Structure formats: C-alpha cells, structure tokens
Amino acid sequence: MFNKIIPHKPITVENLFKFDKTPFNLFMMTVTIILLAAFVVGVLNYLIHGHHAYGITREHPWGLMIAMYVFFVVSSTGLCIISSLGHVFKFKSFEFIGKRAIFGAIITIISGFAVIAFEIGHPVRMAIYNTISPGMTSAIWGMGVLYSVYLGLIVMEFVFLSRDDHKWSTMFGLGGLLVGLAAHSNLGAVFGFLIGRPVANGVFYPIYFILSAMITGSYLIFLMYGFRYKMKFDEHISTFLVHVARLLGLLIAILMFFEFWRFMTSIYGNVPERAASAMHALTSPEFLIGEFGLGMLIPFLIILISKAKAIKKLVYASLSGMVGIFFMRYDLVHDTLAYPMQTMKIREYQLAPTWVHYSPSWTEWAIALGALGIMLSMYYIGENFFYLDPKEHDDYFEHYKDAEGHEVEEHLITGTDANK
Amino acid sequence: MANYGMALDYKNCINCKACEVACKEENGVQLGADKHRIWVGVKEIEGEWPLLDIISNTFLPSQCQHCENAPCQEVCPTHATYYDENGVVRVDSDKCILCSYCMVACPYDARYVDDRTMTVDKCTFCSDTRLARGETTTACQNTCPTKVRTFGDLDDPESEISELLRTREHFSLKAHIGTKPKLFYLT
Lengths: 420, 187
Ligand code: SF4
Ligand code: SF4
What we know:
The complex is a heterodimer.
Chain A: H1 2-5, H2 13-16, H3 23-49, H4 64-87, H5 98-116, H6 123-132, H7 139-162, H8 166-192, H9 204-228, H10 235-267, H11 274-282, H12 285-305, H13 311-337, H14 342-346, H15 362-385, H16 410-414
Helix pairs in contact in A: 3-15, 4-5, 4-8, 4-9, 4-13, 4-15, 5-7, 5-15, 7-8, 8-9, 9-10, 9-13, 10-12, 12-13
Chain B: E1 4-8, H1 18-27, E2 38-42, E3 59-63, H2 71-75, E4 81-83, E5 89-91, H3 101-105, E6 112-114, E7 119-121, H4 139-143, E8 149-153, H5 160-167, E9 170-171, E10 183-186
C-alpha cells in the first residue's frame, strides 16, 4: 500500500542495522548516537529549567538555538535550489541528484524545526495563534507559514520524484522552489526589518540569505556525494561535481563581493551604531577565521587553484565550508544583538557601555549540535528505506528483494504504474 | 479613550529609585527583575577628582516609550502585542508565544520575560492596576519625590502634560527612527 504512494525498500529494523562495519561507518554511527544522546539530554534539561537553561539574556534574547535553526533552514533551501537546477531548470548534469537533494532538504528543515521547537517558549500556542490571530506584518509569521507550506510541497515533490512522475514532480518542485525562496528571504527579513538595529536593517540579509543558501546547498551536495560514493567517483559523478564546483566558485566570489561592500557601506562615514557594530563584527575571530577563512577562503582557493577539478579535496573543504556557514549563522544573530541599546546599556548604573555578551550554555550546545544527530539518523534511515538515486545509479536494484524475499517486479520499484 | 503619555523633567531626578520600587510593588514585578520594567540611567560625572563637574552627572529615568509606531507591535506574529484603547502598548500574555522577536525589535530594550507566565512583559503605564481601578496616575509618577514625572492624556489640550509639552522644550529618545515615542524628556 505504502509502496504505491512512495516506492520504498523493505522497512524493517533488521534492514536498519545491516551496514558494512567499516571503521568509517562505525565512526559515523558513534558520532550520530552521541549527538542524539546530547539532544535528548539537552532537551530534558530545557524541559526542567526552561529558558534558564540557556545562556540568553534580556539584552541578547536570541542565541545559538536561533542560529542553528537558521543554519538548518538555509541548508534546506540551498538543497532545494540546487536540486531544482536539475528537474525544474533541466540542467542535464544536475538531473540525477533530485531525490537525494530533496530528501536532504526535507530532513534539514525537520531538524531545524526540532531546534526551534525548544527555543520558542510556547510552540503549541504558536500553531494556534499564528492561525487565528495572524500578525501579517511580522516576518516571523510570514516565515512560519511559508516554511510550513514549503515543507508540504517538497515532501510531495519527493514522493513524485520517487515515483518517477516528472510532470508532477516538476510542478511541486517549482512550487517548492518559489515558496522556499519566499520563505527564506522572509527569514532574512526577520533581521532586515529591525529598524532599531542599523547593522542588520536593510536589504542585505534577505538577498544574502538566498545566496548563502545556494552555497550551503553546494557544500552539502559535495558532502552527500562524497559520503555516498566513499570518494570513489565514476566519470558521471565527477563531471557533475566539477560542475557544482564551478558554480560554487562563482557563488563564493559573489558572496565575498557582497560582504566587501556590505562592510564598506556600513563602516564608511562612521554612522553611529552601524559603523561600530560592523567593525566589531569584522574584527571578530568568528568572522575572520570562521566565516571568511573556513566558510569562503579555503573552498574558494581550492576551486581556484585546481580550476574546479580537485573534487575530492573539495569534499573536505565542504566540511570546512559548513563550519564556516555555522559561524555565519551564529554571527548573524550575535552581531545583530551585540550593540547595547541606548537607554539601558549606555547609561545604566554607572556601567561603562560595553558590547552585549553572550555565550551559549551547554544545554544550547547539546540541543543545537544534537540536532545534527537527528539529521544524520534521518539521512541514514532515508538511505536505507528509500531510493535516493535514480535507478541507473543504484546498485541496490541488481539484487532487490522485498520483505518476504521475492524478487520485486520492476514497475513497483520505479513506480511507473503510479503514473497511469 | 485617552492617549496616554509621560513627560519627564529628568534634570530633577535624584536617582532615588523610588519609582522602581513603586512599580515593582504596584505591578507585582518578580523579585530580581531589576532594571527590567523601569530604570534610571546614569551619566557618570565627568572630570577627575577633585575637579569633578558635578553638573555633568545626570540621571535619565526610562521605561517602555509606548511608541505610537511601535516596532514591537509590528513584528509580533500573533498580535499578542497590541495598542489598547488608551494608546498604551500592551502584551496579551495568552497570545504571546515567547518568540522574543519584540525584544529584539524594541530599540529601547524595554521588554523582558516574566518567568511566571513565561511571556514577555513591560511597562503598561499601570493599565492593569491603577488605570483599571479608575485612577489616572501611574505608580512611578505618584511616588516621585521631586515630581519628575507627569502622566496624562496627550489628546486633551487641557491636561497638565499637554500644557507642559506646549510650554517646555523637550526631546524624545531615538526620534530619528520614527517610532514616535510617548515619553518626553523636558529640557
Ligand atoms: S519602547 Fe519598545 S516595547 Fe515600548 S512600545 Fe516602543 S518598541 Fe514597544
Ligand atoms: S515574544 Fe510574544 S509579544 Fe513578543 S513578538 Fe513574540 S509573541 Fe509577540
């Protein structure tokens, strides 16, 4: 029955534990279990102590949790955009990644929701009042609604891709892409709309979010395919990854260009608050080492020097890139909030004005990083239960048996009958 | 239906913090939530001992500005933050989902989380307490020994505050961002 809706491999517990016990696989398993355990412990501590378990303060009401949520949803939008290059925009070499990338988009956004559920004080109330008392002028409202629709659309897209139904998967793909772009730029606007925070206020974030999403998506493609093929790429995959690398190089170059002018325009003229905040952000190690070094420079140099050919190195560089992306999200939140608001901080009880400090508590780290465990385990489950590659790339088909051990007819696997 | 605002003759402030105490008492502010709902900013004395410029030492009492164009209201996803019929910016704690967006958006840092309800709270011009009982003063104004605060209806031309704003020069904080605060500092 379920197979009719979405073709899948036998869903059994046994299947889940059938993997080659190579050192790397065992390592990944251990990491995933540790992360999941961290998530559970973090959530328990949050449930006991509430927001007191977090390092957030009145002056810095958002912290690592928001950063991690943004990290995940940026990843999701990024994967959605990159996958749409294939099955919406019909770039030939991108066509085969559709299912895997969209599956990645689904699990990253679910991981993001898992994080935000423990940041929003009253998530259930949110579902109710977002519906019956919608604050349409709020970017958070827009983002919430759009991301929910987006999730629905990409799930449908995945279903139709799995059924090899190109008509509907393209439709849902286009819908998911457009709603995803809207949702994601709205998330940028959550920060861009802050009139009281000159360093964030303005057009930069909504646009930059889309750009950095595409970069994140490309890094994740490298990581997923590096992992999928254990760094042994056949010719087809190599060509594809070289194409991604070229695209990535271009995108990083644009990002560096954006960042350059963003800082220039923020600092030039020494406008109160804005210039100081921008200088503060620019000179922080999080920006210089994290965002710029790991997130842009290392991958960019590898692409530049190897003329986008060193795809194996780029898989490792993508890991560095994702760490850099994490810092981008962290800085997004922290830099926005670092400048003390006038009435309180600057004239408060003899205290000299200082930057607002924030450091995440262990609970925040546990939940935020633990959510990576949710993502990894969902990916693993997906890899085991669904067909994430097109048939010609999936060696599973050669010895495919269903749960009872019968050879399965081809039409069930490819889902071709579902189209009729 | 009034349009409440407050004028502060801040140069008279002696930093006794009676207003903070009165506010806590009146509105049941949590213990430990100091400088949260209402506070007195201090500008330090300039110069070095013994050549201190005592006049430079001023105090700036502050709280929620009850902006006419309030960023906190605009960003609230559930209309938990709203303007009441008296032009006071209020939070409906039943609707607040504690997304903290308003705390990030408020340019005056006037909001805080009440740990008992786990929702956002702030100065209400005593709407839930004194105004609800039919009084027309706020606790902070009532208690101030040097009469720094004048609370009243900005729409009523006869009110004391309207008179003050007509006759005295005044400024408001961060006026340039267009929030139209209703706390007026008399110079
Ligand atoms: S001061 Fe802050 S909390 Fe008060 S109305 Fe203005 S924006 Fe809202
Ligand atoms: S924390 Fe509450 S009052 Fe503030 S924006 Fe969110 S829902 Fe509205």
